[in-house]
Amino acid sequence: MHRKETYQERKKQAQSIMSGELINTFFPTETYKGKTKSSVDHVQIFIETGNLTSNHATALVRFHHTLHSLQNEQEQVSNVFLEIEIQLQDGRWMVMDFREATKGGK
């Protein structure tokens, strides 16, 4: 969840699991300037098991995303299903890219 109090800490945590491009997408500023906060729950992760000896893998992630408006106290809940590309770098699995999962595949 992005909040002013935790923004810097969460950005630092993201740097250990996301590529630089993704960090810039999710943490575009040095400090939190939003009038919203978001949260995720009911997270399910499905990992491709066919070729785990490779340095690349695909994971499917399903979760509920809630966007909370701090101005008018409204909430918008979305069901999200993503296909996430991960790559082994320096002994750590890093998220390199993601896209909405579709029935037809890539």
In short:
The protein contains two helices and four strands. With 106 residues, the protein is mainly beta. The chain has a four-stranded antiparallel β-sheet, with no helix packed on it.
Query: In which range does the helix fraction lie?
Result: 10-25%
Strand residue content: over 45%
Number of separate helices: 2
The mean pLDDT is 79
Tell me the overall shape. flat
Q: Name the structural class.
A: mainly beta
**Order of helices and strands, N to C?**
HHEEEE
Separation of the first and last Cα atoms: 29 Å
Number of strands: 4
* Major sheet strand order: 1-2-3-4
Largest sheet: 4 strands, antiparallel
Topology summary:
Layout: H1 7-14, H2 20-26, E1 36-47, E2 56-69, E3 75-89, E4 92-100
Tell me what you see in this structure.
This protein is mainly beta. Helices cover about 15% and strands about 45% of the residues. The chain has two helices and four strands. It has helices at about 5-15, 20-25; strands at about 35-45, 55-70, 75-90, 90-100. A four-stranded antiparallel β-sheet has the order 1-2-3-4, with no helix packed on it. The radius of gyration is 15 Å and the shape is flat.
